[in-house]
């Protein structure tokens, strides 16, 4: 596992986010992150969407960062990009689900509804999977070599088929 390619790490990102789409998102000038549920659109690579209120501090947009930890705490991503409102009605229809409906009682016509688009410019991805020998070393205080512990990649696109 420790020798996964960047393409494999990218594929893992989208599979894990589909299973647990919760991320912390913040703007670079704000210093505060908030938890949001990402809406994934398979037709738009390198983009996350979030249903937010127009009064949400992220609604002003700008350079931002999103942090992701998988459900199993074995995959981590730090995503840099740009946030902006994209209230395309067709996109809202496509991404709308019961979870969004719970936050916006008036549905897709709620006057406070905004769709935040986060375009990923670059990403740093880590996947940890301590090998059997690494686990034994952890138990007895030995040193774990990088090849026994994890994979890491810095990428300019999270598209599965592109190279880093």
From TrEMBL:
<dbReference type="Pfam" id="PF16242">
    <property type="entry name" value="Pyrid_ox_like"/>
</dbReference>
<feature type="domain" description="General stress protein FMN-binding split barrel">
    <location>
        <begin position="10"/>
        <end position="133"/>
    </location>
</feature>
<protein>
    <submittedName>
        <fullName>General stress protein 26</fullName>
    </submittedName>
</protein>
<dbReference type="InterPro" id="IPR052917">
    <property type="entry name" value="Stress-Dev_Protein"/>
</dbReference>
<dbReference type="InterPro" id="IPR012349">
    <property type="entry name" value="Split_barrel_FMN-bd"/>
</dbReference>
<dbReference type="InterPro" id="IPR038725">
    <property type="entry name" value="YdaG_split_barrel_FMN-bd"/>
</dbReference>
């Amino acid at each position: 596992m420790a020798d996964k390619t960047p393409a494999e790490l990218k594929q893992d990102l989208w599979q894990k986010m589909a299973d647990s789409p919760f991320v912390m998102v913040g703007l670079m000038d704000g210093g505060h992150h908030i938890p949001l549920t990402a809406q994934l659109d398979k037709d738009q690579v390198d983009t996350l969407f979030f249903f937010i209120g127009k009064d949400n501090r992220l609604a002003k947009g700008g350079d931002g960062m999103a942090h992701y930890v998988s459900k199993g705490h074995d995959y981590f991503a730090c995503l840099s990009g740009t946030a902006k409102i994209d209230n395309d009605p067709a996109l809202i229809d496509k991404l709308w689900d019961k979870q969004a409906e719970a936050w916006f009682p008036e549905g897709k016509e709620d006057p406070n509804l905004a769709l935040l688009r986060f375009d990923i410019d670059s990403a740093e991805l880590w996947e940890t999977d301590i090998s059997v020998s690494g686990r034994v070393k952890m138990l007895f205080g030995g040193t774990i070599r990088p090849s026994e512990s994890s994979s890491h990649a810095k990428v300019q696109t999270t598209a599965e088929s592109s190279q880093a």
